[in-house]
Amino acid sequence: MIEVGTNYIKQDEPCFNLSELDLLSPEGELRRYQVYTVVRNDKLATYRKDIGATKAFKTDQIRIPGGVIDEDSKRMFIEHTAGELRTIIEQLRATQCFDKRELVQTDKIKI
Known about the structure:
Blueprint: E1 4-5, E2 15-24, E3 30-40, E4 43-53, E5 62-65, E6 67-69, E7 76-78, H1 82-94
Parallel strand pairs: 1-4
Antiparallel strand pairs: 2-3, 2-5, 3-4, 6-7
C-alpha cells in the first residue's frame, strides 16, 4: 500500500493511526511530531505537525491505532476519527508516565 502526504486533515476524517514521534526536523533538530494517517479515497494519507522541541515533552512517544487491516481480505476497518484520536493522545500526554522498571523482564531492555 502506498502512502501519500497531505497538507491538511479534518477532525471528522477516518484515522488509521495517530503517533507522537521524536523525529529530526529539516534543520536537523530533534522535534516532536504528531503524525496522522487518515483515509482519503480508500488510500492512506499522512500529515505531520511539528508540536515542539523533544526536550519539552516529559512523556514517551505514543502510537494509537484507529483501525486495522484484515490480513485475509486486505480490507481496512477504521474505528476512530482524527479528532477522537487527538483527544485520546492529549489525555495520555497529560497523565503521569509509568515506571518502565515495572515492566516484566526489565533486565532484557536498556532503560
